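Hi V.,

Quick status before I head out on leave. The structure for the redesign project is tokenized and pasted below; the design run finished overnight.
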């Protein structure tokens, strides 16, 4: 995997920021880091959280973010915790 996320985090650190990342579980129970794409509610009066959306390719250099193509790009958060399941 490329170093773009680390380089961006290093640049954002001076501004108290970092990129949003999530972790996907592969079929062999390994973990892969994936860059999250920002989402927001269209109708903000609805309480149900918006699914998480992950980038399949690095938006900075185009390299594949994971060798496991079976990982979903959209993950629905659980209603109770708001975390990815
Ligand atoms: Zn990259």
């Amino acid at each position: 995997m490329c170093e773009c996320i680390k380089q961006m985090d290093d640049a954002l650190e001076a501004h108290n920021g970092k990129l949003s990342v999530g972790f996907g579980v592969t079929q062999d129970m390994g973990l892969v880091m994936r860059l999250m794409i920002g989402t927001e509610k269209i109708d903000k009066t609805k309480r149900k959280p918006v699914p998480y959306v992950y980038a399949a390719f690095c938006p900075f250099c185009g390299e594949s973010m994971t060798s496991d193509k079976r990982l979903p790009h959209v993950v629905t958060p659980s209603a109770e915790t708001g975390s990815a399941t």
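Above is the designed sequence. The first helix runs from residue 4 to 13.

G. will cover questions while I'm gone.

Best,
W.
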